[in-house]
From TrEMBL:
NCBIfam families linked to this entry: excise
Domain of life of the source: Bacteria
The protein's name in its UniProt record: Helix-turn-helix domain-containing protein
Domain Helix-turn-helix: start-end pairs: 8-55
Record InterPro entries: HTH_17, SinI_DNA-bd
Amino acid sequence: MTTATAELLTVPEVMKRLKLGRSTVYDLIRSRRLVSITVGRSRRVPLDAVRDFIDHQIEEAA
C-alpha cells in the first residue's frame, strides 16, 4: 500500500484502535512515535503508521 492510497484515520479512530486516550495519542504524535499528517486543520494518521507503532511496541516488549 502506498502513502497515496493509505487509509487515513482520525485521532478518535486511532484512540479506539489503540484503546488510548486523546492526550496519549497526541503525545505519541508530538513525540513522533506515531506518524501523522495534517490535512487542512485536521490531523490524520495513516493506518500503516498505527500498525508500525504496534509492531514496534511488541518488539520492545519482547
